[in-house]
Amino acid sequence: MKTNLRAVYARTYVRVKSQFREPEWLISDALIPVMVVFAAATLYRVSGSQQIAGFAVVGGVMMAFWDNVLWLMASQLYWEKESGNLDLFIIAPVSKMSILLGMSLGSIINTSIRAALIFLIATFVLKVEINLADPLALLLLFVLTLTALYGLGMLMSSLYLLYGRSVLNLNDVLTEPVYLLSGLYFPTIGKHSPFPAIIQFLASLIPLTFGIDGLRRTIILGESLGSLVSHFAVLAVLTAVLIPMAWKTLQYMENLGRRQGRLSLRWM
Amino acid sequence: MRALDNINIQVIEGEIFGLLGPNGAGKTTLVKILTTLLLPTAGKAYVLGYDVESEAGKIRPLINLVSGGDTPGYGLITVRENLWFYSMLYGLDRTTSMKKIKQLINEMELVEVADELLRNLSTGYRQRLNLARGLINDPRVLFLDEPTIGLDAVSARKVRRLIKDWVKGDSGRTVILTSHYMAEVEELCNRVAILNHGRLLALGTPEELKKSVSGKAVVIIDVKLPENLEQILQELKGYYETYDPASGIHRLRVVLEDWSETADIVEKITAKGGKVLSLTRALPSFEDVYIKLVGGGESV
Asked: Is the pTM of this model over 0.90?
């Protein structure tokens, strides 16, 4: 247990320390979501929806997390394999889940800083009206959304364990559909959604969807804990399913990789 | 395709054991099985008495792996931080970890780059860091897969000296080393296994293996070869070739059953338009053992 906790701490440390050694990435990674926020907020405003222009800000903030999950969680083990780290993780006497957990925590810390930057720039420049009535609801919702989202990241990372460059293409394929379905641009669940029920159901399987919707309700519409019960329930279920699934998948893929000799195959 | 075929080897505790063979011989596959990265499709393998298939968890704290050419670790953290990171994966507490890192930085002569980012290090330093990383848990069995590949002569010699010093430090330390370099294996290893196409061709001390060619004739032939070089070389079995582009001279080192075969070789070369410049007798070396067993055809 102690060894696993040390591994979690060490992997978190590496990720956070690396970001602070190259702070210029913080700016460039924040820039694209900020531009998307401006574009979406402008559309809302010209259509006369001043209040929901703030929706775009929340969408932009959460976009940073999704990009991070795809590029620095899901496909991370591919890079670890190429550098020779993956072999060493496999032969180290720690649970591989602790490595993934450390990666997640480091990513959450790094991306939260970036997300805060996006939020501050966007709210200041766009003069978005914030109606936060229940900070506790916001905090709980944010933590639960990230837990479920990085649970998905860990699951994807496990699934990607044996694959090579194709994972990068898969990331490209997943980027825009998730932006669209999860509601980064506009609400995709509830009464404002333009989608039929079946699409809304599928969209709700993405942890971001209920997370973004709940965050918009707390930050922009001023709703409190009581009106967000369904959001908490969905996110809790997703967390309870995704994290054990990631654990089992990682074990399965590691054993499969050992049997097929694909754990340390490079340049695939 | 069978990467390993009916290999039966026992490594003795405290020795440096070499695995030698050409590309595709099965050396790295064997190391991957023993380090629990790969499961054997048939047969059994044990490390320190533990089964690699069912007891990987007991083996892992006791071993480590250093692969030459790899640069494990993270470019944006320092040498010291990288070592610390890996020490955490082995559960070292803070005091033990700091003490161990300090010791390894001194022993591996990394003092001047200890606070440099990994990405700024030269290949030689990276490989020494890789070796230090492999020793972080003070393994009982250290697997070295081509540890000096890509290093210049001075750096390679330094790495070899560090390996020897580490093994000398404790009688319970064992090294299993794969290499393409005959001189390296001869210098470092107590015993050597020569593999080819997944099969074990020979096993013994370098001296014992050298005796197997003691009755053979070794001849060094300097030749100028025409365009159909490959055709001529294919007809010679058991040779090693070096080429000097400045002079255009190929130096072939050939192991023969008998001196009388020298005339045949000269005839083959001249018949194809090659020009023999000189012929020299040589004493059989460890390299010749390899040539004889593996069948030659290697350019160095």
From this structure: no
